[in-house]
Amino acid sequence: MKNSEFSKIRASGVGYLINSIQTLFVGLLRIWTIPIVLMLSLCTGFTTYYGLSHFITSWIALIITVAIQSIIVISSLELAGIHWRANRIRYFSVVCSLAVAVSASISFSYFKFYEISQHDNLHINRLNKVRSDVKTYTDQVSIIKAEVLKQQRAELEKAMLDVQQAYFGTHAQIAEGYKKQIGEGPFWKHYNKIYLEKKERQAKFEHDFSELDKDIQKLLVSINALDIATNIESAYSGMLDNFQNVQLKINLLSGNIGQSLPEAPLLMTYKQFTADIQPSFSMWSDSNFSLFAFACAAMADFFTVLLSYRLEFTAPGPLTAKEEELVFECLRQFTEFRINKNDELEMNIEKTEIERAKRYSDWSRMFAVGLLLSRGFLRKVDDKTVEFAPNLYPLIAEKMGDKINKLRAESNLVRQAHADE
Predict the structure, then answer these.
(1) Are residues 162 and 63 in the same domain?
(2) Phi-psi category of residue 44: left, alpha or beta, with phi > 0 → left and psi -120 to 50 → alpha
(3) Dihedrals φ, ψ of 412, to 5°?
(4) Which of 83, 195, 322, 337 is the most exposed place for a label (fewest CB within 10 A)?
(5) pLDDT in tens, 163-204
(6) Is residue 339 part of a domain?
(7) How many CB atoms are closer than 10 A to CB 259?
(8) How many Å apart are CA 65 and CA 56, to the nearest integer?
């Protein structure tokens, strides 16, 4: 800090120091806002590019993305420096440009946030799809299995009854002369052979179905393991192997029982099971719409617009020392000032009635107004009035302070001269 600054602090006290710290803090916040806006713009630009690149060529998507983000930042800055009453066409063109750019950014950013937010749900839905297909298939097989075993038991019971009736000679197929003869005769041997064959066949069916149940249970366990497996590829490959074993045994049983079993579902491959979400406009449908993804996409663009708007200046650089002197002297020529609804100092830039009557030339001061408007130090309210931008107050305050100090110095010199006399 220079000696002049120390002298000002001693002369003005703690208030000046607090004001200097506050001014520095506000200035640092404004400077810090710039990299935040740039980082937000890069973030939303990446998500916008990601969504666009799924529909058009990558290099075209990149150019459009740069254009969208540039329009958002530039329009937000420009919107902060204009009033709709000053130039309605310009104001609404800026608003429309900003609305179109923000809508495009949110729409294509939504796809990336949708993918992030729905990644776990996508895995769960695919797992549930596999589980549902397998369960439907095995349930249909179980129903047919129960019917086959029921039919086999009924046939076995009938064969057992035939054996008993043949043994006691009461079977309907026994001739009248051989009825009521108890013993293991030819009829009994014939029906006993049929009974043993059916019994053996039923035992084989029960054994095969029991093995099938074990394989189905193993398949269901491997499907459930997909949810907690660390190596998804290995776990999914094992699940497909178990499914193929079940399908093979069901096909063999289909030939043995002499009837067709339900067709096996076509399960997705590992690549399909782990594939990322492919952006599509179906994500905007009522059934697939994600409010959280939309809110994230809108929030990023909202903060970009808000912080860009709050910068409140579009000046490409500070004024030179000569320009500052010119501006200060020209602004002093205006006479009608007031505080407007924005709590900013507002001045009338038209000639007064007296100036019109004297045919006063206001070229120099209007040049100063035009310079400050182009640099962002003034903001146009309407055709007749302009208001000070926040970055103009420190400049005027400094010039007023220098003017007051100069007047004080001249006054002291005059007093000193009178005292010497």
Answers:
(1) no
(2) alpha
(3) -65, -35
(4) 322
(5) 777 666 666 666 666 666 666 667 677 777 777 777 777 777
(6) yes
(7) 11
(8) 12
For 391, other C-beta atoms within 10 Å of its C-beta total 16
CA distances to 154, 347, 382 from 374, in Å: 100, 17, 15
Nearest to 311 by CA among 399, 390, 234, 227: 390
DSSP string of 357-394, one letter each residue? HTT---HHHHHHHHHHHHHTSEEE-SSSEEEE-GGGHH
Residues 262 and 328 in one domain: no
pLDDT digits (tens, 9 = 90+) for 297-349: 888 888 888 888 777 544 445 677 777 788 888 888 888 888 888 788 888 88
Rounded CA separation 259/151 (Å)? 13
- Output the average pLDDT for the chain: 77
Q: How does residue 214 score in pLDDT terms, banded at 50, 70 and 90?
A: confident
- Using only C-alpha atoms, the chain has a radius of gyration, in whole angstroms, of 45
Beta pairing partners, 379: 387
Please indicate, yes or no, whether residues 16 and 126 belong to a single structural domain of this protein.
no
Domains held by the chain: number: 3
* pLDDT tens-digit map of 30-55: 778 778 888 888 888 888 888 888 88
Residue 401 sits in which domain range? 321-420
β-bridge mates for residue 338, sequence order = 346
Residue 342: helix, strand or coil by DSSP?
Answer: coil
